[in-house]
Amino acid sequence: MSDTFFRVHPNINFARVGNSEEYYIAPETAAGDLVDKENGLFGGLPIKPDTENTPITSTDFRDASDNVKRQAARFRIYAYDSPQQDYPAADGGREVQIGDTVGGKKITDIVWTVHLANKKNNFYKITSANGEEEGINAYKGINPDTGKPNHPPVRDASFGEDLANTTRRSQLVIDAGPRAIRSAAGAGTVIPFDAKTPCSYADGSGKVQKVPDYPVSFPDDHFKMYQYDGAIDTLGELLIEKGTGRLIVAGAYGRASGIIQSDGKAPAMTDPIDNDYWFDDTSDGPVNAVVVFDDGSSQEVVGGWVVTTDPGYAPQTRNVVSTWDDMFNTWVEELGLIPSLYSGGSYQTGYQASFYGDILPVFHGAFLQRWNTSLPDKGINGHNYMAKISYQDNPKERIPNFKDLLRDPNEPNEDGTGVKMPLALGDATKSFLSLSPTQYFLMMQWYDGVSVEDARAIGGGEALDRDVLHNCLGGRYSPGIDLTFIVRDVNLYKQSWQGETGPFRVNQQPLDYTTATKDQPFLGVGYVPLQKAMVEPGDLCKFMSQPWHTDYNSCAVHEPDPNPRQNNTLYWSWPAQRPVQVHPASLCTYDSEAGVWNLGGQLFSVRGDGEGSANGTHTDYPQNEGRYQLYPDFVANWHKVGFIIQGTQISADKGDNYGADKFLEVASLFTSNGDVVQPWPTASIGKAGS
Amino acid sequence: MKQYMSKAALAAGALMVFASAPWAEANAYGGSSCPTEDISNWFPHSQTPEPDNAGFDSSTICNFHEWSWQMFLWLTQDVDGEPRFLSFASPYELLGLETRGIMMPRMGKSNKAETFDEFLQAGTDGIFVDENGNAVYYSQYLDDTYVKFMEDNDLTNPDSARAFEATTSFPIGSLELKASWKIVEDGEDTDKFFTMKSSVYGLANKGGKIVIDTSDIRQVTLALVGFHIGGVVKGHPEMIWATFEQVENAPNVPAGFTPSTVISEDDYTFYKAGTPFSGCNINYGKSPELKLDEATQKLSPITQACRQYEFGNSAVNDPKLQKSVETNDLNVSDMNKAVMPRLAQEDDVWANYREVGAIWFRPTNALKPGMTLATDFDAEGNQLLIGSLKLSNATIETFTQVQSTMNNCFRCHNTEQVFPPSADLMPLPAKNINISHAFQNIYFWSQQMKNGDELLPAKD
Fold it and tell me: What pLDDT, on the 0 to 100 scale, is given for residue B25?
């Protein structure tokens, strides 16, 4: 055998819930990247199933019954011949499939094992006892009363406050257990993560082993549940992609259910992020594989991770700060990823930023925000101006006072400066969002002329790792949509990355399924921020809102927290991931003279049905606009929210399509126009006539 | 320009003891009655002297409101049959244009108002629709001092403007004005308005937007409903920004309102009796509900305007500001009481206009390039802005009266860099003279003219 080793890519990938049986494939290009210069198509679009990279169109978000299709995560195996020393890896690797030859041996099968769980209810709340969302700061220091590390209050404390308690681990954790699937089984093989389907895993030789005694746990096993759209009885399924043998992981259906209380009713759902007694069917867990060769030998693959989370309502809108940007920053500053960029505790002034890799994507992220917000024309023009800056331009001419424009993440005084960019909310008691320190440094390098035009060369596997995370929310983890502040914690990762492992890999806990017994919960407490415990299935999603719906609903616009002196202006939480104000394609008008589609007006993305007070989203308070006023109403209606997609992907009876210059809402099932959208700024009212 | 020495200036000479401190606390916050000078020489209105800009005394809040009222009277004084301000240049004139819409070279200097083309409010692009369904139009004016400064420094040349010294400010006496005009319909009583025959461009639906129709010039009678004055006086290169309104424009929102509070049981020019706060000042500019009937030129929905702050201040403020706010509001109220009856005695139509308020910098000569003016305080937490800290004109900034990011003149009139309205134009670096949006517009228009482009919409 050669020294060839294998890795799963993407390193972390994202499935998204939907209430349809059908699915599309998670995007493998990054939002904000211009992927087709001919027709102006931007990246971030999901992929049609059973295709290599055909982007979906506006008709692919829903099935024939208008149900929301799920987003499934696609995983591949890459082979590498040289141990990694640097990032990006000198050896870019190559994808391998059944039939490929590696080191003189032919691959006969790839046997995958995935384990999905949801530990949201057996963990800590997002909000600390002081009422603040403190992010990782909530886990810093030692509690003088207990002598143990600090943490927020426990969720579902009526079950006791010890996360290791057997009852808590048995009843409050949704654990579907492991499932193995063989690529050789081919398309059509479906292995569900439900109670009926036996647990299984691939052993080191690639043989599929049954785990009949695995303690699978779903809420209805333990409680009488109040259900929306049925019981939470599955976390999704595994499939094999037709023709490639790649793994497809589809998540569940976006359900929420609550433990019926002593009064016979559903539990209260009144908090934006922490609702005791409620469950949802999001999940996460490791994705491992064993490559089997024609000589009977096998080789284990460096594993990845899958997360199932909220639907992707605006897949092409790039977050100005993405999950990738936060993760990359952590690895650059704390784990020695690129010493020529950062070493000895400081950024290296000789490091050249890449215009296409580091700079333009941020500007594109900014200019795409308009499609999910309601910016005045001045703001739209300003963002468009930035997006048209080229490498040939003199940055100092195009942006005379760059530091006055951009919030400096290294200057705490700028946290409360509402006039600087990005014009969005921060997290963990920072009022406003700032670029990551790495992003900011690279921006300033470009501004000072220390840059190259092209993006750095990167292998296909590492590009997938990066681009998938570029499509996820960063910067404002309160708690977020896809992942949260834990991406800034080095304890989440396998830190010894050089060699076979590679960077950014989740520090997955090896699981010995031979020890599983029916009467004992299998999973432990698992990962806790700033501590050394390794990462188990369900340890990533447990930091997110319970259920996800309430957070999605509430995160339209807010005042900053803390609110700067005199401020009453409302800002967006996560417009790239959670559209607030949108341009429906149905309101566009065709200009036959010019041969183009013109924008119509804007509506709220979450706008309900019915008029006036009969519409559950109606409010007279701007700070509450664009959401249901009662959380359960969003749980009942989340599937009606429309999707934002580039005009090229929306076919039209005139002019072929709506044009590459627009990103429009399609497939909304809401029947009302809702409250009137007014352009930014809007202000909170209700504080003594403020 | 003829200068007059005001009594305030004379008083300032006697009060040199305060020269080392821009404010004497007793005068600033004492709540003394206003006016403090003898204003009898302002009347009759036909003889109101020009304020002494060069000798301006910054020592009391009252002085700023005296200047505001005196300037308003001087600007509205009848000169050759029309108010003085109508003889001032428009920003277009500095570029030799008749109007932006038709890119027509001017045929010599004219005292006749051009065809009005501004109907979008600054900042949020809102259209202020009156009770008849007509858009309210806006016009801008620059005085000779302003114009001469622009010409002397070649500031209509974008290259010169871009390279202009960042710390140089507009000279004392420079004025930048903006007026708001309601179209008068047959049968409307205009006794209490200044009116004039003029022309406006009609409106059209084009490109998914409501735009001016340069082929449709409509002869109309316009009634003045709002008036902004921005002027440089000694010690205040940031300009004193004062605003006036016709008294029947809109009702005042009471402190402690809720969305369901009915703001008035009476009709106003821009308000229908019984409208609750939730129906006030709604900007339909981005909503599909906003419609223009091209045939009738009527827009809908109608805007119900409510004046959020009677004198440009809310009842509750940062404690550091409270005393100056109380003094300011009392001074404005007293000035209105002092001046308006005198005008009424003359049976002067201008008796129907009142000062809403004015705002300026508390320290003197404090304007610097790159000031965001996003809050009322400086970097050290000291009060920077003073006067009417939430000053808006209900007819000019209808939709941004409350929002802290746009709730007074300086939120938008600052000295930050300015990005262009389209990517093929060069930005404007941070400069003191960026305080003037007329200057900013001229800078971008002059580039567009070089490019042969149609001029883009103006800012206020």
Answer: 45
Report CB contact under 8 Å: B314, A690.
yes
User: Considering the domain boundaries, does residue B378 fall inside one?
Assistant: yes
CA distance A425 to chain B (A): 15
Query: Under the phi-then-psi rule, with left for phi > 0, alpha for psi from -120 to 50, and beta for the rest, what region is A465?
Result: alpha
Instruction: Look at residue B115 in the predicted model and tell me its pLDDT.
Output: 78
Cβ <8 Å between A678 and B285:
yes
Q: How many angstroms separate the CA atoms of A471 and B423, rounded?
A: 27
The pTM (predicted TM-score) of the whole model is 0.95
Which chain A residues have a beta carbon less than 8 Å from that of B420?
381, 385
Counted domains in chain B: 1
A286: β partners: A305
Q: Is A620 on the interface with B (CB under 8 A)?
A: yes
pLDDT per residue as tens digits for the range A291-346: 999 999 999 999 999 999 999 999 999 999 999 999 999 999 999 999 999 999 99
B207 contacts A385? CB cut-off 8 A: no
The token duo for B191 is 């006794």
Residue A688 to residues A157, A565, B304, Cα–Cα distance (Å): 37, 16, 22
Q: What tokens does B455 get?
A: 């001029």
CB pair distance less than 8 Å for A600 and B259: no
Residue closest to A459 by CA, chosen among A79, A116, A155: A79
Residue B220's nearest CA partner among B126, B140, B131, B116 is B116
| Angle at the Cα of B214 from the Cα atoms of B211 and B217, rounded to 5 degrees | 110
Q: What is the pLDDT of residues A145-178, one digit of tens each?
A: 999 999 999 999 999 999 999 999 999 999 999 9
Dist CA A243 CA A248 (whole Å):
12
Tokens for B435, please give them.
Answer: 């305080």
What value does the mean pLDDT take over residues A388-411?
96
Q: Which residues of chain B have pLDDT under 50?
A: 1-28, 101-113, 459-460
Q: How many CB atoms lie within 10 A of CB B117?
A: 24
A677 touches chain B (CB under 8 A): yes
CB contact set of A301 (below 8 Å; sequence gap of 6+): A6, A7, A8, A77, A110, A288, A289, A290, A291
Helix/strand/coil percentages in chain B, nearest 5: 25, 25, 50
CB contact under 8 A, B318 and A689: no
Q: Does A589 touch chain B (CB under 8 A)?
A: yes
Instruction: Choose among B136, B128, B144, B92: nearest CA to B113.
Output: B92
Among B302, B315, B316, B193, CA closest to B252: B315
Residue at B456 is within a domain: no
Contact by Cβ (8 Å): B61, B28 = yes
Cα separation values, A442 from A414, A455, A593, Å:
19, 13, 45
Assigned domain for B381 exists = yes
Q: What is the pLDDT of residues B278-289, one digit of tens each?
A: 999 999 999 999
Residue B104 sits in which domain range? 2-28+39-451
Give domain status of residue B95, yes or no: yes
Q: Helix, strand, coil shares of chain A as percentages rounded to 5?
A: 20, 25, 55
C-alpha distance from residue A100 to each of A93, A291, A294, A436, B288 (Å): 14, 11, 11, 41, 57
Say how many C-beta atoms besides its own lie within 10 A of residue A185's C-beta: 16
ipTM: 0.94
